[in-house]
Design brief:
By secondary structure, the protein is an alpha/beta fold. Helix content is 31%, strand content 18%. The strands form six sheets. The protein has a six-stranded mixed beta sheet with strand order 9-14-13-12-10-11, covered by helices on one side. A five-stranded parallel beta sheet has the order 1-2-3-5-8. A five-stranded mixed beta sheet has the order 17-25-24-19-20, with no helix packed on it. It starts with a helix and ends with a helix.
Length: 754
């Protein structure tokens, strides 16, 4: 199809019609010109295809499909290749079902544990989120099926999600909330980008030209089309002009008519409409060029793949040696989630699974008993339930309590109000732990929870929302068939009040102020050296690892150079396992507030007992840079940077420093109001103001006193402080005559020209 030729033959009404959906899931067709409709469908951790009675939020059934682990789990794998395989599987299912685009991945940053959709999102860290998203997108699109990375941008709460304004400075947006999208665009080129519901600094994402055109297309080079989240459009004409190509779902022709009227009134350039249509048709044609509806979809094989992925994602948070379990031991499985696991979240990502495997089912043939322990539906643990659970725990060598968050606690559409698990489940864990010192807790949840019982249990396994085969994966982990290798992609704070956004998360009315700035997650906790329940990057294994022999390619580079960092990882234990080598960078001394460390590299490495492997990272300018609002670009300050490698942000094992020299000279802005502290920090400025310094010291009494009383009144420290904080205009006011004042004016002009 010659797309430009086809568009030239369309009527204005047909072109405007192409800019909105036919219904909930299909784009429009123009049959007379051979333009076919395509279907998009919800994701991102499986296929939720609806044909009849469509509703977007999952109230009505979709086709039977396979539920893979949710984003909260997959990010914890720290495994790009694994997530790529998951993407390939989902891509095959889309080809089989004749779907052009799967709506995912969701990469919004986990600003607070309260966000209702955190179970879909990947991480509190933008580097990790971007790397994992790119791997997923490349996997799906390798099967010639598109993705729609979402929700662009700063969509970090469900409260007032369709009207709230995410108010953040540009540095915060550029360093925290944009990079996951940027990385995905540059490394994987998703076919589409989905804009978010919210406003950003007062402007709806769906009609924000800076966001959709200047940043996304001109700066990052995005080539596909932008679609709206379902119902996110406020002003359709402004949206077209800003770069929103496709409105979803159908507008009933209302907004199509507005586009036509705007063009005819000269308020909207028809060429902009043509461009939107061209972008949509280009993606659709890409799909049709290699559509393969005969692609096999082996759901049973994908079920086993889901179990494999879940096993790589689970995080062993605590273990005093009780795990792994022995298959001959008598074990009690306690808690309703053992027989009816919670393995996915609610809302638009909810998969209608063709089968599920619970832990009770997976443990068939082992010496395992089961007690319900609590009721999810009634959110209670009766005295009889707890008594049965305690009896089962006492009769077993090890008691495993399956607990976590019910569906009602976290879902699309609303935020959590607290970080607690159900009181009934906490009471059950306390009772079981009192009855059996070998108590293990398995958690099924999409975001962090408080653990008041943490010191009373022997082990905790974070299973997250691990997909439909989570029970099989859990049993494999518990009994040692799989060695846990997941690491937290988010910090677990001790309590909700510790979270940096606690005081202002959710906002006031429709204004959500991101006052914590770049200090999100571990960036905040590490800066404050605050106690956390479990740090970012944490994850235990049934073996042990050590890192050594850190090497850097150079001890001094410029910001235009690349630096290679190599470290040796060794399995020092007795079992084969996988470790996640995490590389963090920190600016030792900066003129702007920066985190202590930031993740800039990671690799998952499999090692046999006693085996060592070298892991190498390549770092470029961005690894050392911050967003400089004066430049409107990434900037590296000359100075020393720490290179740290460890098994979490709090478990740094080896470190070194390198000096990075900036090749960019920032424009200096000195005025009569500039203080001496700032001037003295600049060698060039010191040379200009040197004649003033002696006079200034004399004025402030620094270094000499006329009497003992004067020395007591103005100490040397006080005098130095007065000098540091004195602006240039303060010195000029003490000038003796016109000649001195003229000299100072000349110095001021010289400073302004630096």
């Amino acid at each position: 199809m010659n797309i430009k030729e086809v568009i030239s033959q369309m009527t204005l009404e047909e072109k405007a019609g192409m800019c909105s959906g036919l219904d909930f899931w299909h784009t429009k067709a123009v049959e007379r010109l051979g333009v076919e409709s395509v279907m998009v469908s919800d994701g991102p951790h499986g296929l939720r295809k609806q044909d009849q009675e469509v509703d977007h939020l999952g109230i009505n059934d979709s086709i039977k499909a396979v539920c893979m682990p949710a984003g909260c789990a997959t990010a914890a794998s720290f495994d790009r290749a694994l997530i790529g395989r998951m993407g390939e599987s989902i891509g095959n299912s889309c080809q089989h079902e004749q779907l052009c685009v799967v709506l995912g991945p969701a990469v919004n940053i986990k600003r607070s544990p309260l966000c209702g959709r955190n179970f879909e999102y990947l991480s509190e860290d933008p580097y990790l989120a971007g790397e994992m998203a790119a791997a997923y997108i490349n996997g799906v699109q390798s099967k010639n099926v598109g993705t729609s990375i979402k929700h662009f941008a700063a969509n970090n709460q469900e409260h007032r999600r369709m009207s709230s304004s995410s108010n953040a400075d540009e540095r915060t947006l550029r360093e925290i909330y944009f990079p996951a999208f940027e990385t995905a665009v540059k490394k994987a080129q998703p076919w589409t980008v989905m804009c978010s519901y919210n406003r950003i600094n007062g402007v709806y994402s769906s009609e924000n030209p800076w966001l959709l055109t200047d940043v996304l297309r001109k700066e990052w080079g995005f080539k596909g089309y932008v679609m709206s989240d379902w119902g996110a459009v406020s002003d359709r004409v402004a949206g077209v002009a800003a770069g929103l190509d496709l409105e979803m779902p159908a507008s009933g022709g209302i907004n199509d008519k507005k586009i036509v009227e705007a063009v005819r009134a000269g308020e909207l350039d028809e060429a902009v409409v043509d461009q939107a249509v061209e972008r949509i048709l280009t993606i659709n044609e890409k799909y049709f060029a290699n559509a393969k509806p005969d692609t096999p979809w082996d759901k049973e094989a994908d079920h086993l793949l889901s179990a494999e992925i879940a096993g790589e994602c689970m995080v062993l948070l605590k273990n005093n040696g009780v795990l792994p379990l022995h298959k001959e031991d008598k074990v009690a499985f306690i808690g309703e989630f053992a027989s009816k696991p919670r393995f996915q979240g609610g809302g638009s990502s909810h998969i209608n699974c063709f089968k599920t495997t619970s832990a009770v089912e997976a443990a068939e043939g082992l010496n395992v008993t089961y007690a319900q322990g609590y009721s999810v539906a009634k959110d209670e643990a009766t005295d009889e339930m707890i008594a049965e659970a305690v009896a089962a725990a006492k009769a077993a060598k090890v008691a495993v309590v399956f607990a976590g968050l019910p569906d009602s606690y976290e879902s699309e559409g609303y935020d959590r109000t607290h970080m607690a698990m159900p009181a009934s489940q906490n009471a059950l864990i306390e009772a079981v732990a009192a009855a059996n010192p070998n108590t293990v807790v398995v958690l099924h949840n999409g975001s962090p929870v408080e653990m008041p019982w943490i010191d009373k249990v022997s082990a905790v396994l974070e299973a997250y929302l691990g997909g439909q085969a989570v029970g099989l994966a859990t049993v494999r982990i518990l009994f040692g068939d799989v060695n846990p290798s997941g690491h937290l992609a988010e910090t677990f704070p001790v309590k909700l009040q510790d979270n940096p956004s606690y005081l202002y998360y959710g906002g006031e009315a429709d204004e959500a102020d991101y006052r914590e700035g770049v200090f999100v997650g571990y960036r905040y906790y590490d800066k404050k050296d605050m106690n956390v329940l479990f740090p970012f990057g944490h994850g235990l294994s049934y073996t042990t690892f050590a890192y050594s022999n850190l090497r850097v390619s150079s001890k001094e580079i410029t910001d235009q150079d690349t630096l290679t960092v190599t470290v040796t990882a060794t399995n020092t234990g007795k079992a084969a396992g996988k470790t996640v080598v995490q590389l963090y960078i920190g600016d030792k001394e900066s003129t702007v507030l920066r985190p202590v460390r930031e993740l800039k590299g990671f690799e998952k490495v499999e090692l046999q007992p006693g085996e060592s492997k070298d892991v190498t990272f390549t770092l470029d300018k961005r690894a050392f840079a911050y967003w400089n609002t004066q430049l409107g670009d990434w900037h590296v300050e000359t100075g020393e940077f720490t290179i740290e490698v460890g098994q979490s942000s709090r478990a740094i094992e080896v470190c070194d420093t390198v000096t990075v020299n900036s090749t960019v000279k920032l424009k200096k802005h000195y005025t009569k109001d500039s203080i001496f502290m700032d001037l003295m920090a600049d060698p060039e400025a010191v040379q200009v103001i040197k004649p003033l310094l002696d006079h200034f010291k004399k004025v402030c009494g620094v270094g000499e006193q006329s009497s003992e009383a004067a020395a007591e009144a103005v100490t040397e420290d006080m005098g130095m402080a007065m000098m540091n904080y004195m602006p240039l205009r303060g010195v000029m006011s003490f000038a003796d005559g016109s000649q001195d004042k003229e000299m100072m004016q000349d110095m001021l002009k010289a400073l302004e020209n630096l």
